[in-house]
Amino acid sequence: MNTTGIITDISIDFSTSKPKISLLLDTNNKEDIQKLKNEDKLNVEIKKWYKKRSLDANSYCWVLCEKIAKEISKDGTIVTKEDIYKDAVKNVGSFVPFIVEERAFENFKRVWEKQGLGYQVQETTRKDKCVRVNCYYGSSSYDTKEMSRLIDAIVQECKQFNIETLTPEQLSILKEEWR
Fold first, then answer.
1. Residue 156 in 3-state DSSP?
2. What's the Cα-to-Cα distance from 157 to each of 56, 62, 65, rounded to whole Å?
3. Those residues with Cβ within 8 angstroms of residue 72's Cβ, 6 or more apart along the chain or in another chain
4. pLDDT of residue 93
5. Which of 7, 40, 91, 136 is 20 to 30 A from 143, alpha carbon to alpha carbon?
6. Domain coordinates of the chain in residue numbers?
7. Model pTM?
8. d(CA 104, CA 23)
C-alpha cells in the first residue's frame, strides 16, 4: 500500500524506549490496512511529501528540445532532441561527485548511464589511477522545482533561436500546476 498522510502523535514505548508514531492516512481502504495489521513486521518509509511534477512538464520539455534540434540541424549539422536534453541536464541538473578507480570507471559509467537518458557521467580529472566524475541525475528523478529550472533553461535556449514558446503568463500557470 502506498498513500500519503500526516503524523498525528509521537510517543515513546515504555518497554523498548522506541518511538511510536500514529498516522492519519489519506485512504479509506480498510481491508488493506487490516491485512497489514496482521503482519509480524512491515517495511516502512516515511518522508516529506511533495507534489510530483506533471507529465505536461515532461512533454513540454521534449517539445522544446525537438524544436531546438530542428533549428540547429537546418545547417546540415545533425543534432537530436536527446542531445539537447542531455546538454540541458548537464547545464542545470543535479549531480553527485564521485572518485572511481580507473579500472572500474567504464563499468561504473555503464551502470550509471543505464538508468536513463539524462543519467550521465562527466569525467573531470584523472590522477593516481583514479577518475573524478560528476554523475548527473535524469529528469525522471526531478521534483517540480528542478524540472522548472530545466524547462526555464530550455526556454532560454529557444529564445536564442527565436523559437516560439509559451508566454510568460502561460509558463507561470504551468509552474503553479507543478507546485
1. helix
2. 19, 13, 9
3. 79, 84, 161
4. 87
5. 7
6. 1-49, 55-178
7. 0.68
8. 45
Chain centre distance of CA 66: 20
Task: Please report how many Cα atoms fall inside a 13 Å half-sphere around the Cα of residue 75, on the Cβ side.
Answer: 3
Among the listed residues 63, 73, 52, the one whose alpha carbon sits nearest the alpha carbon of residue 145: 52
What is the reported pLDDT for 178? 54
Question: Residue type at 59?
Answer: S
Asked if residues 116 and 82 have their Cβ atoms less than 8 Å apart, the reply is: no
Q: Which three cell numbers stand for residue 44?
A: 516502512
What pLDDT, on the 0 to 100 scale, is given for residue 53?
62
Outline where DSSP puts E strands in the chain. 5-12, 19-25, 95-101, 120-127, 130-136
CA distances from residue 160 to 6, 113, 154, 177 in whole angstroms, order as listed:
46, 30, 10, 26
Q: Name the residue among 132, 130, 149, 143 with its Cα closest to residue 90.
A: 149
Whether the CA torsion 121, 123, 129, 130 is positive or negative: it is negative
Mean pLDDT per 10-residue interval, the chain, length 179 residues: 89 94 88 86 85 73 95 94 97 94 97 96 96 95 87 94 87 65
